[in-house]
Amino acid sequence: MVDIADRSASLFPVVAAALVDGEGQVLLQQRPAGKALAGLWEFPGGKLEPGESPEDALVRELREELGIMVTADALEPAGFATEALPGRHLLLLLYVIRSWQGTPVALEADGLIWCEPAAMGAWPMPPADGPLVRQLRSYLGDSVMSVVAADSGTV
């Protein structure tokens, strides 16, 4: 929980994507060795650069991390989480993405997995992702999802 009394802490915004395929599975990536929280599974995404909007940051991060092209209008805001860190407050913004161009490849992660939303708890994840998993399950519900990747038909 964030300590609102700590006014010296700066806000640290991070964006994350829940890529959802045509079968309703969600993509997770494994944090690489040598980085904080190495080996844990997370939603792809990353930090905003100065002056960058959350949407532009996520489009950039997905290109860099997965080699896929996403347009800002494909981003569905789905939830957020906060966590107090030393000297800053993490604000993690989650977007659902159902359409993209290309096939996701682990360019900066140690691995990728597609998993059912109900099974995401089986994969060890950073603490801030816990609330996002619960919000994502609620957001997706039991709806039937269809994802069309522009270059490969139905995913």
UniProtKB/TrEMBL annotation:
The keyword Lyase does not apply. The keyword Metal-binding applies. Its EC number is 3.6.1.55. PROSITE patterns: NUDIX, NUDIX_BOX. Its cofactor is Mg(2+). Residues 10-140 form the Nudix hydrolase domain. PANTHER family: 8-OXO-DGTP DIPHOSPHATASE, NUDIX HYDROLASE FAMILY PROTEIN. Belongs to the Nudix hydrolase family. This is 8-oxo-dGTP diphosphatase. It comes from Sphingomonas sanguinis.
